[in-house]
Amino acid sequence: MMDPFEILDVAESASNDEIKAAFLAKVREFPPERAPKLFQAIRDAYELIKTEKLKLAYPLFHNPEIDGDTVCRSLLEQSRPGRPSEEDFKRMLADTIPLAGLPDSIE
Amino acid sequence: MSKNKNKKKTESLSIESLIRRANSALTSKQYKEAINHFKQLLKLDPQDQWRHSLADAYLGRARDLAGKGLYKEALILLENRQPGKTGNTFGLHIVWTLLSGQYRQAIETFYKEMGRLQRHEIDHIEATFALLIISGHDEVLQLVPEGSKLRADSTTAQLAVRAYCQGNDVELSGLLKKIPFRSPYRDIRSILSALSLNPGDLKSGREKLEKIPHGSPFKAPAKTARLAILNEVKIMALEKSPEMARTFISAVRGIDKRVYRSVVKISHSAKSVKTLFNALLHQSAADQNPVFQNCCFKLLPHYPGGIKAYQKHFGVLSQFDLSRIAALSYERTGDQEYAGWAWEDASDALAKQPSSENNRLIRALILRRSAECCDRYGGGYAEDAEQLLEQSLECDPDDLPTFLSLFDRYKALDDNSSYRNCVERALKQFPEDSQVLMAAIELAIERNTFKKAAKFAKTLLKKDSINNRARSLLINAHLFQAGKQIVVGRFDLAAKEIGEAEKMERPGNPSGAIPLHRGILEYARKNEVKGEAMVEQACRIIGSYASGYFRVLIEMSRLKIAGRYRKKYDSLLKNTASHKPDKSIFLGFIKDFQRYSLEEDVDIRGALSTLNKYFAAAVTLDFSRKEMELVCETLQNLDAFQHLKNFAAAATQQWTEDPIFVYFLVFAKTEGTPMKLLPQDVSQLERAIDMAGKQKNMRVVNRLIEYLERSRLFSFFGGGDPMDDEINEGINPSFDSLPAPEFLDEILFGEEDGMDDEITKPKPRTGRARTLRDPFTLDIFDDGPF
Known about the structure:
Chain A is mainly α. Chain A has 6 helices and no strands.
């Protein structure tokens, strides 16, 4: 399971009210009828950190399995989305041109 | 040389074998081989069908080459291919001509011979032109005739690409709207639209990209775009992507080259925790990114061998951190005993730090965790867990679950003074909690402080008016008090208490207990007629004369009512219970026996002897497993060995080798005296222990072991039941004061294979011993007043 603070998109120092507000906002964004799995994950995350004690207990006792993917994810989380240069965009398109010659629909 | 060999081999084959091989090669897309076989076949037997198949093989081979980007070579094969019945390859010829760089020839042929092409072929070829134009092949645009769709939308599409790259989303949105649905540029519209969505809106992005049809020339860029908008970048997929795609994705996701390099290195070295840890340490030397230190720290409970290297690299860890890492590490390996001790060390380390609210809360949490470890290690409630939980309440008294856990523990321990103290503290902390109030009511009743009990019950019933347990406890308390007044001859006070009990009954839901006690009161007053009438009324409400008479009989014996009345009800009970046993009535008796078996001054054995025949006949009734266990449990409490033997034997027949029934059977056979265990009983119990162990039923395992151990201790002490306090007091070996043998020290604290030397093994606290305790307690007051 992902970090509950990440799921609810709150800082570890967030107050109970902030956590509750974030939980309600997420639930409104992903209601159970539209995104049942995500809704469940949001609820589980809230249950893990909804009180002061739980919030303290989580980092204290949580001992997650860490693998390369986890580390990579943490590293990649630091990145900020951007836009490629026009030149890079065109080069990416040009790079795919050789793959365009095998249309199944054409005999 | 191998070619010649193959040729020679083929030449020597019969026509049938050649046909088989050729068709097989064609269907398995071994086109090169298929071409050879069909050529050979045509030499031996020139038929049209071989010619067509050869043409198919050539086309397949040409597609293979085109798939590798060898369009010129593919075109040669396509042009030299024998005409077969495989349809028109004109469209393909134009696409490959275009992709081989012969733009002028391809465009001229396309516009001149458009009539020979089908609609979907025209769309595909135009989309390929569009891809070339947007990717910067201006020469293609110049060759396209004026007024064509390709020219009309090219500027808009190119401006849209620019607007996206410059982050000008408002302009982009306007431009994308200008690209019509039937335009050859419609697929780049979908790609740009998906890319410009909010990061993380994967679903909408994916939907937009899925609109691009499978055969579209824009499918490959769409795949790259999909990777770029994925919530999580799949490093392996990214690594496998062509360089241009990777550059593009990195730009969209904002991954700088240093991070990308780190990610690739780490994903390659993450084969084990150790290699991952070392790779992270190595990376952190080159890059001060805090992620590396953070991940290394989180890895330490999984790889405590890295503690030394971690401290060398990132600085010394605090005693608290070291103990916490050790505890988590022991928890991972399932060593709950050491984990518990390590958590206690962590708590001690924290206690030495400056006190703060958070600090105290964390200590409380840690002490509770340590208590959990003790319980897990003990397979139930462990004795020293109480001490830890009490300490945790000193740090954080506002924790109801801890109080409730302590209630159960002290009850199981029969530690009345600690229980009382704990309930009183809980009541101060949670004066309106229903569970705490319930415990307070029980305690007050136990101490005969009925006014207090009534006060708590009223508070509870105000909050929870349908709390039957509280209601029945209070009613029973008043009735018990009434009984005491009857015994001392204060009949008016007894009537008053019964009246108080009646007030507590739920309107319209009488239990029968009130008329029953009024009847007994009348008998005590020698008003036989009134008494009989009240008892009859009680029986009607209870719904069973047998059950009613039974209760009257027991109550009369307790309240010392004249013997002749008792005899009367004894004979009435005998007559009523002489019929064929009924399961619900029988189970009613069992529950009554359970209730009364805890009370003193009750002639329970007398009542049982009255019901002897009824009980003997009841063994044939059809009980569920749970009901049968309850019956056996009650009979065991009553020391009714013969009945227990009958019921346990019936149970072991129905639930073969069920450990708890084996225990009851052996218990009954040996009449609850372990010294009477025969070798076959011992082996039967040992088998039952194995079985219960496999079922992970620790309660039964403990029970069986205790019985067996008592027999062994008996032999050791040379007679007398070792559970007998007098014997224990006489021996008083003060085991705690004996020095631990060296070998025990070695077992507890010595080096073990595979254990990391980075963790200093935690030590047990003085005087602590992990003992098992059975948490199972029968809750017998749930069924309302009696």
